[in-house]
Structure formats: C-alpha cells, structure tokens
Amino acid sequence: MQWTVVENSDAVAHLVCDRIVQASRLAIDKRGEFHIVLTGGNTPKKAYALLAQARCDWERWHIWIGDERCLPADDPHRNSVMIEQVLTSKVPVPLNQFHAIPAEKGPEEAARLYARSIEGISTFDIVLLGMGEDGHIASLFPGHEHPAGLTVLPVHNSPKFPPERVSLSAEVLGQCRQMLFIITGKAKADAVSRWRHGDQMPVSMIRGQGKSEVILDQQADGMNDS
C-alpha cells in the first residue's frame, strides 16, 4: 500500500484526476477500453469536475459505481446523479457505457441486475474508494455481514441515510489493476490512524490485485497520532 499525503482536498482532487487520466490512457493503449469504478463524496466530486476538463478518449470509457442509495433515480443524494451532473453530462461517454446501479428498484432486485451487468468484467482498470469516519467503504459497514461469493450486495439497516443501499462486494472491488483510496478532512484522521495500526475495519480488508494507493490530505493523515 502506497500512502501519499498532500496539502489539502483540492490537491487530493488534482492528483486523483491525474491518476485517472494516466490509467485511462494506459488501459486504452493496451486493451482498447477503460473500466473505472467511481465513488461518491465531496472530494471525488471535485476530482470528477477536473476530469471533465481533461482530454480523454471518452468513447472508450465504461463508468461503474461502487455503491448506491436506494432512492428515486433522480434523487440528488444518489451517486449516479452527482456523477452525471459533474462528469458524464459534460463529456461524450456513450450513454450505454455509464452503468448506473438501478437502486430505485430496491436492494435485492438492484443487486441482482447489477451483478448481471458486471458478469463480463473480470478486472476493472481502476477502482476509487472513499472511507467513512467508521472505516466503511462503499456501503460495506462495520458490524454488517458481507456474504462471500456475491458480487453485488443488497444492504439493509445502513447507519447512514438511507438505510437501504446496494454495494459492490469487497471481492469485486478488489478485482482491479489499480485502487485509489481518497480521504480528506480531520474527521477521518482517527479512522486513518486505526487503519494504519491494523484495526479490523471494512477498509482494512480490501486490496486491489495491482497497485493500491491512499491519497489523503494533511488533515486526514493520522500518522501524528502514533
């Protein structure tokens, strides 16, 4: 695991944008297409806004989402709505290559449908993940059971609104050539410190098949707690 600490959330967003652009060019050069899993959150949102201004071969992009809230399809709290507003509405990614989770159908049905959508994807090129103050990633929360063998999980009783969600499993999220954890803000510093000290949290149980990097700002950096 590589840890990269930069000054603030803006610097994190710029570095994340650069990492994504580099990964897309490499993937398209080698395999002719680029598969990315996006996450929600304010800092990723900044990165996506920067990404929308980048020069990329957008028609070869496939955009997936790591987790989604079971809300109406146009609800502003949905990750898909944020991604569309700041990125996909501004770049020529083909509509059928933006793979939103149909979470408006409810956790079980949405998980079943999304699992079918990703069946042909053996490895994502890059997966982006945030981390909550409790160490959760995507919609995989501490204290919840995450059954092995499932690619997409229906989530109930989320400690964060709304209680029903859909999430890619830890196993599927780890099936990637590159993984980026994006963490900003002082409120995350305790969880970062616990992660570095080996505490068992959802974030500590996932690894990409290739390079894994944590990009965080100085406020989130928990090393000073040691």
Report a brief summary of the structure.
By secondary structure, the protein is an alpha/beta fold. It is 29% helix and 20% strand.
Characterization of this structure:
There is one protein chain. This protein is an alpha/beta fold and 226 residues long. The chain has a single domain (2-225), classed as Rossmann fold. It is built from 6 helices and 10 strands. A 7-stranded parallel sheet has the order 1-10-9-6-2-3-5, with helices on one face. Helix 6 (189-196) links the parallel strand 9 (178-183) and strand 10 (211-217). Helix 1 packs across helix 2 (42-51) and helix 2 (42-51) runs parallel beside helix 3. The longest helix is centred in the N-terminal third of the chain and has 23 residues, at 9-31. The two termini are 18 Å apart.
- For the residues shown, what is the average pLDDT? 94
Overall helicity: 25-40%
Shape: globular
Tell me the series of helices and strands, N- to C-terminal: EHEHEEHEHEEEHEHE
**The CATH topology is what?**
Rossmann fold
Number of helices: 6
Radius of gyration: 16 Å
How many individual domains?
1
- CATH C-level name: Alpha Beta
Number of strands: 10
**Class by helix and strand content?**
alpha/beta
The CATH level-2 architecture is identified as 3-Layer(aba) Sandwich
Uncertain runs are: none
Measured between the Cα atoms of the first and last residue, the distance is 18 Å
What is the strand content? Answer: 15-25%
Lateral strand order in the biggest sheet = 1-10-9-6-2-3-5
Question: Largest sheet, described in full?
Answer: 7 strands, parallel
